[in-house]
Amino acid sequence: MTEISTLGEFGLIRHLTENIKIKNESTLKGVGDDAAVLSFKDKATLVTTDLLLEGIHFDLTYVPLKHLGYKSAVVNFSDIYAMNGQPKQITVSLGVSKRFSVEDLDDFYEGLRLACEIYGVDIVGGDTSASLTGFCISITCIGEAEKEQIVYRKGAQVNDLICVSGDLGAAYMGLQLLEREKTIFAGEKDFTPDFAGKEYLLERQLKPEARKDIIRQLKENQLLPTSMMDISDGLSSELLHICKDSGVGCAVYEERIPIDYQTAMMAEQFNMNLTTVALNGGEDYELLFTLPLDLHDQAEQLEGVKIIGHICDASLGSCLITRDGTQIALKAQGWNSLEDNNL
Amino acid sequence: MTEISTLGEFGLIRHLTENIKIKNESTLKGVGDDAAVLSFKDKATLVTTDLLLEGIHFDLTYVPLKHLGYKSAVVNFSDIYAMNGQPKQITVSLGVSKRFSVEDLDDFYEGLRLACEIYGVDIVGGDTSASLTGFCISITCIGEAEKEQIVYRKGAQVNDLICVSGDLGAAYMGLQLLEREKTIFAGEKDFTPDFAGKEYLLERQLKPEARKDIIRQLKENQLLPTSMMDISDGLSSELLHICKDSGVGCAVYEERIPIDYQTAMMAEQFNMNLTTVALNGGEDYELLFTLPLDLHDQAEQLEGVKIIGHICDASLGSCLITRDGTQIALKAQGWNSLEDNNL
Description:
The structure is a homodimer. Chain A contains 10 helices and 13 strands. Chain A is of the alpha+beta class. The first copy, chain A, folds into 2 domains: 4-149, CATH 3.30.1330.10; 161-329, PurM-like C-terminal domain (Phosphoribosyl-aminoimidazole Synthetase, Chain A, domain 2, Alpha-Beta Complex), CATH 3.90.650.10. In chain A, helix 2 packs parallel to helix 3 (102-119), helix 4 crosses helix 5 and helix 4 packs across helix 8 (261-269). The radius of gyration of chain A is 21 Å and the shape is globular. Chain A starts with 7 loop residues before the first helix and ends in a 14-residue tail after the last strand. The relative contact order of chain A is 0.15. The interface between A and B is large, with 80 and 80 residues.
């Protein structure tokens, strides 16, 4: 184990960034000056940022640092895809607590680099500092998009189809599972919980992917959504954002919400309402988008995409239609670090 | 006092950002979607980021939140100017501890907005989260520059003049002063220390400015530095960066280093070596740049700029030439949060 203080700030940054190879034409200068220099020519520049704090967003007792590095990058890429853009660069700022070793940061960076490799993104800068308390991660992602191809939250129209990629609720059930095992094995040193048959849930929680493939499919099929978001706080919360920004309402069919078998099994075990889990679980990083009704047939052909409902007039509100036909108003109950129960 | 939990995450973000007016043509979409949308046309995009952590980078016992907001923005602008660019947008991520009220964040944002107003920068996004421990600030600044006008650290040539704006060491002495008063008055509730005659030092520490004016002067006089950096970690450290990246050495004259009268008085009181303070103090946010020797006369005309030495062959090393003509090798002793004494 190498103590970070043996390298110092500049030594550490050099150690972590020295082998970075620039992949994108738009990166003119990466790490190593007062600022990174990028060039997107006639394309628009997209910018998104996320702050992840130990004890709030992640628990290092069960989150491996390599996975955390991977996830920290991917959640930012997801925001760029949600604009119908391509992520191209990230800056990485870390606040590092005393108990961290150089090897710990190497693990974190290994995950970060792997994500950047897979998604074609350059690490172009950052800041590394001591932290008096927990591990603190701030990542900013820069992407590009053709101006006329950018998809905002505000464009949904009455009668549009509501589409969602992948399945929902699995990451949340993965978190519940990890939290339960942590409680059971608290205090024991070498705990090896049995996660057999629940691998998908853990993967969704610990190593999520961003839906680059959906953006590619949309492009290949020349489909331009009228609105789009990524699902980080739960389907309900994101649907309400789209409805509010677009000045519309929506109807979503409970039976159409995509849910994996493992998620359903786990919700049963935990005695949780499966629909609530799928609507409010959060951290799915799937894409939620709307398409004009006349594209129904093409929408149905999209691989890994499900039509779950439609946009309606604002006066009709935003509703879930249950299996027995009851309408229930959607509520944003997604995870929120600033609510009473968390602060 | 309003508790943050009464607003929730989205309510808080809305409260803090609802009256933001976009000033720049390059900002197509600010706060309120998955990512901000910017457009710099044929100009290059510059990106820099800074992470500021309570207890490491600032002490809330004597740093007013409004000043902290101002400073957090300005230190990022400074990095963009140091590339010979113009800051245009920032994203602001905050980790907020439980003891913070909405009014505290209003104060912080007031400083942030004031800085953005003065420097012509748009707030285009961010992230607000609970923090289990201290206040955590991550700001990313995006700027623009004509590609052929960007100034890197690596371009210094043998015989170039070394120029520095403003004066050095004042922010560091301001910090020493604040720390001393904090120690003296520890425990007393209404302490009103006497800072008469030391206002400049406090201002340099608590409310620094970025040298937009120097960048404007350089442009007006059609002077393009061969290399440039802002001085955040101390003159010595930054000079060594330029020399290393440019593959050159340097000679700096002790008697030419610009120092304010209040800095000198305070160093005397604290029994500190004044040159050490000026070389290694840090947080000056002045600009350090090099100009070709044949521009000597124009360099001398620049207001608020002093020529402090020249670039020489790498084999001659990087030296300070003292008042009595002795050569001393420059060492980077600037503040470093990851060194042993800080962690």
